[in-house]
Specification:
Layout (H helix, E strand, L loop, with lengths): L2 E3 L16 H18 L4 E5 L1 H4 L15 E4 L12 H7 L9 E6 L17 H14 L2 E4 L20 H14 L2
Parallel strand pairs: 1-2, 2-3, 3-4, 4-5
């Protein structure tokens, strides 16, 4: 199944990005949703929160009412300090109690690995905590990124040698296949 993700990483943080309220953002999204629905009434539309698609706190007070909407978060490890679970629940996890949520970018890399930068620096602990939390909540996720130049990388070369996170997520998915 395909999705329409309206904006990958919306943000209004900092002087360089301008300012926008949730009602203003929601109105823009609703306009785009209406245009899409004229040609496709069934495909799921993914709506991301602010803070580079991390923050979904606004959904509790003002969710979309249109059908086939799912919410997006990108909970990279340095978006919040450890322990993460309580913060994830408050920032985006609670949304999955009523609405579909998909984490369209998750990932980490070690500090010494190629492309290490805030907010992706962490260890396998992030992967363990994230997959455990999302399993309990029924939240889907997509590991980012299958590339040797963008990070956090799943592969280190075009022979497809897994990076630290590549090994972690590959092992995690293979363990699910055996169940």
């Amino acid at each position: 199944m395909a999705f329409y993700e309206l904006y990958n990483e919306p943000t209004v943080s900092g002087e360089n990005f301008g300012k926008m309220t949730w009602p203003e953002w929601k109105e823009i999204q609703e306009g785009l949703i209406a245009h899409i629905r004229r040609i496709d009434s069934e495909t799921i539309i993914l709506v991301a929160g602010f803070d580079w698609a991390y923050d979904l706190t606004w959904v509790g007070d003002d969710p979309f009412t249109e059908a086939n909407i799912a919410y997006v978060s990108h909970p990279y490890p340095q978006k919040r300090d450890e322990p993460w679970e309580e913060k994830w629940e408050a920032d985006w996890g609670y949304v999955s109690d009523k609405y579909p949520v998909i984490l369209t970018e998750v990932g980490f890399c070690l500090e010494e690995e190629k492309g290490a930068h805030v907010p992706v620096i962490s260890t396998e602990k992030y992967g363990i905590d994230l997959t455990s939390y999302t399993e309990r909540k029924g939240i889907s996720w997509v590991a980012w990124v299958f590339d040797v130049n963008w990070s956090p990388q799943l592969i280190t070369d075009w022979d497809f040698t897994p990076s630290t996170q590549g090994r972690f997520f590959k092992g995690y998915l293979q363990s699910k296949r055996k169940q």
